Amino acid sequence: MEKGMLSASIVVYGGAQQAIDTVNSVLNNTQKYPISLYVIDNFSPDDTADKLGEIPDIKLVVKPENVGFGAGHNTVLGENLGKYHAVINPDIELNCDALSALVDIMEENEDIAMITPRIIGDDGNEQHLPKRNPTFKYLFLGRLSRLGGIFKKIRKEYTREDEKIKNTTDIEFCTGCFFLIRSEIFEKIGGFDKRYFMYMEDADLSREVKKYGRVVFEPSVSVTHLWKRESAKSLKFLFLHLSSALKYLKKWRKSE
User: What is the pLDDT of residues 33-44, one digit of tens each?
Assistant: First the structure.
């Protein structure tokens, strides 16, 4: 089968309507390049899989258990992916052909291995997400940014917020909520590290990808992210986040 230009995966765990809205926004707005869209249901505890199964233009995979974010996306490894593959959260909305725009940028720049656009909240403001490699300072002290002072300064340093980036810029940490990667590289490194059930797998992947090419932030393209920040509201998700942070720091401490 001839390899297409573009594929994407969305991992879902419940939240049927939001996932359906994301799927429809991707299908309706991706016009320049045909897209193969894989939706992986991570053993949702409700009827999400049944509802997604009613959408004709996706490839639905229903997992027998919740394997986590990264392992869920790894389900597509070995499938007929496009030259470029997008990882998309189920709370993302596209209002334009963002994916094709990113493909064109990567076609023009063969040294770019992975790219993420500007991420906008549903309030219309940019979500300043991490762009530097995580460190103990960024991961733990940066979480206290609401207290202001030095903690807010640390968070801004982590996200490079004060730089007000206006051009294609190399970054160290590419957010997992929405990015495009060369499928050849994604497959070569084996996708996400399955040791992370949730959180930090994107920071880890970014470091692996940088061995093969540039990881960049592209501010001229944007998507909307209905960010819940579960780890800031739930002890369960906070524990997962901190556990993954420690795994990340242990894995990469020799590279610091």
Answer: 999 999 999 999
Pairing mode, strands 35-41 and 59-62: parallel
Cut 0.90: pTM above it = yes
Any bridge partners for residue 92, and if so which?
225
Which structure tokens are listed for 91?
């709370």
119 three-state secondary structure? strand
- For the chain, the average pLDDT equals 95
User: For 15, which DSSP code?
Assistant: -
Question: What DSSP letter does each residue of 125-174 carry, written as one string?
Answer: SB-----S---HIIIIIGGGGGG-HHHHHHHHHHHTGGG---S-EE-S--
| Contact in structure between 160 and 37 (CB atoms under 8 Å) | no
Are 13 and 44 in contact, with CB atoms under 8 Å apart? yes
The Cα-based distances of 115 to 51, 55, 170, 193, 222 in angstroms read: 31, 28, 9, 19, 12
